[in-house]
Amino acid sequence: MWPFGGGKDWNIVGIMFERPDSYSINGNRAKGKSAETVKTKVKVHDRTILWVVYDQKGGIVETGPGRGSHHIAADKVKELEKILHTNHSIRDVLRILESGQSNKAAKKLIWGGYPKKSASEG
């Protein structure tokens, strides 16, 4: 299954809906069987827009829309998928997890893709 005895050592990241103009990034580092458990919990969380499993070198192992992806337009989910390797907020969370400083990290997602507010929303 995992050659060379490496086992699972994943960084599982959820991009979470907070409100239409604000999403957060929640990251967890998990190993072995608990990695699958954490991944499942992130995937099924009601506010998870998009979930991503990274290896310890920053490579994407797998990704997909979360249970909360209905909170935003489908084209916005696609835009988020395109920034998974380049967004500074996501990279900051991954740096914390990869360095071992903590096995949990969270941050507000900073990006230019939030929906524009209409004049009536002021």
Detailed description of the structure:
The protein is α+β, with helices and mostly antiparallel strands and 122 residues long. It has one domain (8-108). Helix content is 27%, strand content 32%. A five-stranded antiparallel β-sheet has the order 4-3-1-2-5, with helices on both faces. It starts with 8 loop residues before the first strand and ends in a 14-residue tail after the last strand. The relative contact order is 0.22. Residues 1-5 have low confidence and may be disordered.
Number of domains: 1
Mean pLDDT: 92
Total count of helical runs of at least 4 residues: 3
Q: What structural class do you assign from the helix and strand content?
A: alpha+beta
Amount of beta strand: 25-35%
- The helix content is 25-40%
End-to-end separation? 54 Å
Unreliable segments of 5+ consecutive residues: 1-5
- What is the strand arrangement across the widest sheet? 4-3-1-2-5
Cα gyration radius (Å): 15 Å
Q: What tags apply to this protein structure?
A:
disordered N terminus, alpha+beta, single chain, 122 residues, 27% helix, 3 helices, five-stranded antiparallel β-sheet, 5 strands
Brief overview:
The chain has three helices and five strands.
Spell out the blueprint of helices and strands.
Elements: E1 9-19, E2 22-31, H1 33-44, E3 48-54, E4 60-65, H2 74-82, H3 88-99, E5 104-108
Antiparallel strand pairs: 1-2, 1-3, 2-5, 3-4
